[in-house]
Amino acid sequence: MRQTTAIFLTCLSLVFFTTGPASAQTALPSFGDAFAAHHTQVKLILSADTAKPGDTIWAGVDLKMESGWHTYWKNPGDAGSPTKIEWTLPPGISAGEIQWPLPEKLPPAEVTTYGYETEVVLLVPLTLASNLSGGPLNLAAKVSWLECKESCIPADATVEAKLNIGSETKTSAEASLVQSWQQKIPKPINNANWKIKVWWEKPATGDLRPLIFERPGIYSAAKNIPYSVDVFPEANDHFEIQSAVENLPSGIGGFHIRKFVKKFDGNWPTEIGGTLVATNYLGRQGYDFKLPIDEFLASEQSLLQMLLFAFIGGLILNIMPCVLPVIALKILGFVSEAKSEPRRVRKLGLIYALGVLLSFLALAAVVIGVKAAGHHAGWGMQFGSPVFIVCLTMLVTLVALNLFGVFEVTLGGRALDTAGELASKHGAAGAFFNGVLATMLATPCTAPFLGAALGFAFAQSASVIVLIFLTVGLGLASPYILLSWNPAWLKFLPKPGAWMEKFKIAMGFPMLATVVWLFNVAASSYGKNVLWLGIFLVVVAFAAWIFGEFFQRGRSRRGVALALVLILLAGGYAFALEKELDWRTAMPEANATGSLKESADGIDWQPWSVEAVAQARAAGKPVLVDFTADWCLTCQVNKKTSIEISSVREKLKSLNAVVLLGDYTHFPDAITTELNRYHRAGVPLVLVYPKNADTPPIVLPEILTPGIVLDALNRAGKP
Amino acid sequence: MKKTFAWFAALALTASAFGVEIGKPAPDFSGTDINGKIVRLSDYKGKIIVIESYNSDCPFCHNHYASGAMQELQKDLAAKGLVWLLVDSVNTKNFSYRTPEQARKESADLKIAATAWLDDHAGEIGHLYGMKTTPHCFVVAADGTLVYDGAIDDRPQPFGDPRTAKNYVRAAVDELLAGKPVTVSQTKPYGCGVHYAN
Fold first, then answer.
1. With contacts defined as CB-CB under 8 Å, which chain B residues touch A6?
2. Does A205 sit within 8 Å of B186, measured CB to CB?
3. Shortest CA distance from B182: residue in chain A
4. Cα–Cα distance between B120 and B197 in angstroms, integer?
5. Which residue is closest to B17 within chain A, CA to CA?
6. Is the pLDDT of residue A202 over 50?
7. Binning pLDDT at 50, 70 and 90, where does residue A6 land?
8. How many domains does chain B have?
9. Which residue in A9, A110, A212, A677 has the most chain B C-beta atoms within 10 A of its own C-beta, making it the best mutation to test that interface?
10. CATH number 2.60.40 is the correct assignment for the domain at A192-292
11. What is the pLDDT of residues A146-194, one digit of tens each?
């Protein structure tokens, strides 16, 4: 029946509308009449029958909707239109703004609207001039609204009420109705009491950005403890708070919610307004707010936790495969310094720490710079640059040669002559350099805890990035600072002696191993041409030997030796690096498609993409994704020990799982975005998506064991 | 922590399932038009395409057609070689649903000048593009990237003459034709909710 009516109404509206825009305007009043009281009945009520001049009374537009029909709030949300009131008032009476009672959030979720069902009284304060003369007055308002159920119908009606101006105020029969709706108007929030903080949780993903509203929990049983909180947004042309809300864990009496803001144009807002809706056992209460948004402000608790994670992560970095070669250098340093006086040992420890910290500061500056330039930043991103790899390969080669004794590193030219005098400077420069080297080699690794801390840091403000990076550095340097503060702990080390020279040479070999690894990373950028990098390294080594043997230790024609060194380096550079390798314009590997199998019976890796994951999940298959990079040693170790092993291969086969490889070697943006989604700043990241497509993926820890992987796969295989 | 990850993963999935992003390739789709022909977005490669979420029972949408403003825009753009696709995602149980026969009649009665009217009663295209309202509009550049997503114009009213408003679709198309970047690429769509099947 109602459907027939609606179709009739639609036809009727067609008639009105098709008469053209000009006549549609003039047809409005009759249009309104035609629709009056179809699905919404409207009347005007007043809080007083008689009022005195100078009073402010309440007028209420009472809209009663038929079952299933609704009208809209001042911000209708994804669709709809707010109700409007146009007053026709006698002179001396002025109407204020509509006071909107707290609306309902109306489904469906994909097109959420804010409105009223059954009934709403929109309240408007009417101010009476003090010189108003007595007698009856006629108040009229044209109310236009959009009413919707399965379809939407615009309607309007003119409503009237009579008000007597007298010497005494007399409340009306509707005064209690007005009062009950007054209580439903959101109150302005007093943030001195509420102490609500609003901050961006992280940078935007596309045009969406998560926004956190938090009120710290109070640990006393206060009245009106909200147990569920939402934010209804103010209408805005430039951005929109999305309707979805997530209540996160919070202390008693507090709340912690995540909303998403969608931006249409302009900059991200720095201030946000709307209505906070707190629901507790007493019911719902709205609070209007306008609050500043803090950029990336994290709650102090989580910052402290992340600083702790950063420190522990930095500490653990010392034993990760990337930094291990530098440990050899440090051991040597301690042995050679063990004989020195404690003060000097302490000083060297601090200088080493300074080298580490300054390097981390430099890294933080790079990250902040890259972010400011609007690019993605990631841990270890410099390893995506072939130029950096070439420089580092050369540097580590020189370190190995230095350990072999081919040449000396001194600030002066003649090591042997002024050995005693330069000893202190030599030690200091060496310690500093060790710190820098340790940091540089540490960056391609992430350690347990470090991933979480860095993932957090990369989304924060510059000062928090600096703080977290310095804390990681402090963690990395801390064992050496401690040891140099307490040289007594070094007593277990053997006495210095002739063995040290042999030990030093032996330690050159881990460095050579590092060179081989870096060379392999470079190969992924240069392909077969990497041969020319090898040739250049031989030229550099030869030049280093001439430099050490005939310039540093030579007695005559030292100038000739130096000239030869420079000629070798310049020639090697020009020919091998520039001409043959064309090292600054490396061509990245062609995007591999199809299987990336490593061996005949190996895992059938397919290249990762968001679509590939979605496709596999749509087909009801479990998915394992390994985000890895050639330069990420932790990733390689994980793969060898826990992924590319027979038990995991069989498990993957039996589950009919799709196995995807995300290659982060050249730092593609798509993977950075994906890593950020999981709050990670770098690789490794291994995800296992369960068969059931509604279940979120299992995020595996940074360091894997076969048990962890098999357990995750078992869980993923369950329906 | 775990919950956060789970949540973000869910978001990631939602985004990939129902997301269109400005500057990214507009996802391809295929649908049946009211004459029973299969229409794919990729059929119009190389042309500028306007996609409009349509339901003429919606007063906002209706006003654009009753006033003739929308048909004028459609004709103007068709003359410039553009493609205009109506997407009707109203479910079959809603009385605003049009059978192909009713739709053909309505299209003729209202003199709709779109390239095709797609019957999307399952809501597949609507969900794919995240269509929120009727009329929610999209503009796809000739190279297939999405350049506009939002309201038809800056006048969210079911009455009056839409020609007095700033029409975002026309502006985006004009800029594309002039080889300029699109200034307003995203606005909040207004109108009635799309009456999806689920």
1. 95
2. no
3. A265
4. 10
5. A614
6. yes
7. very low
8. 1
9. A110
10. yes
11. 998 877 888 889 999 999 999 889 999 999 999 999 999 999 988 888 8
**What is the Cα–Cα distance from A256 to B4, expressed in whole angstroms?**
13
Min Cα distance B19 → chain A (Å) is 10
Mapped onto helix, strand or coil, the DSSP state of residue A348 is helix
Residue A380 parent element (H or E)? none
Q: Which long-range contacts (CB under 8 A, 24 or more apart) does A646-652 make?
A: A647/A706, A647/A710, A648/A603, A648/A706, A648/A709, A648/A710, A648/A713, A649/A601, A649/A602, A649/A603, A651/A710, A651/A713, A651/A714, A652/A603, A652/A624, A652/A713
Q: In this structure, what DSSP letter does residue A237 have?
A: S
CB A458 within 8 A of CB A367: yes
Which pLDDT score is estimated for A513? 85
Q: What is the DSSP code (8-state) at residue A168?
A: S
Choose among A153, A265, A677: nearest Cβ to B8: A677
| Closest C-alpha to A627, from A639, A615, A614, A641 | A639
Position A674 scores a pLDDT of 81
> How far does B144 lie from chain A, in Å, by closest CA?
18
Q: For residues A331 and B8, what is the distance between their CA atoms, to the nearest angstrom?
A: 44
In whole angstroms, give the CA distance from residue A516 to residue A317.
Answer: 21
The encoded tokens of residue A225 equal: 């403890």
SS3 A467: helix
Tell me the two tokens of residue A122.
């929109």
Residues in chain B: 198
Residue in A24, A265, A610 closest to B159 by CB: A24
Q: Is there a contact between A10 and B57 if contact means CB atoms under 8 Å apart?
A: yes
**B150 close to A264: Cβ distance less than 8 angstroms:** yes
pTM: 0.53
Task: State which residue of chain A sits closest to B23, comparing Cα positions.
Answer: A206
CATH code (residue B97): 3.40.30.10
Tell me the C-alpha distance between A396 and A438, whole Å. 11
Architecture, CATH, for domain A39-185: Sandwich (2.60)
Q: Higher-confidence residue: B28 or A14?
A: B28
The verdict on residue B54 lying in a domain is yes
How many residues are recorded in chain A?
719
Q: Measured between beta carbons, which residues in chain A are less than 8 angstroms from residue B10?
A: 696
Cβ separation A265–B68 shorter than 8 A = no
User: Cβ(A353)–Cβ(A480) under 8 Å?
Assistant: yes
Q: Strands of A217-311 (E only): list them.
A: 228-233, 239-247, 255-263, 271-280, 283-292
The SS3 call for residue B136 is strand
pLDDT, tens digit, for every residue of B102-123? 999 999 999 999 999 999 999 9
Task: Establish if B8 belongs to a structural domain.
Answer: no
- Verify whether the Cβ–Cβ distance B21 to A79 is below 8 Å: no
Residues 6 or more apart whose CB falls under 8 angstroms from that of A265 comprise A238, B184, B185, B186, B187
Cβ atoms A154, A78 nearer than 8 A: no
Phi, psi of A527 (to 5 degrees): 65, -140
Pairing of strands A606-607, A658-663: parallel
The shortest CB-CB distance from A697 to any of B9, B130, B150 is to B9
pLDDT over 60 (residue A4): no
Which residues of chain A are within 8 Å of residue B17 when distances are taken between CB atoms?
614
The domain of B136 spans: 18-193
Q: Which CATH architecture has domain A606-717?
A: 3-Layer(aba) Sandwich (3.40)
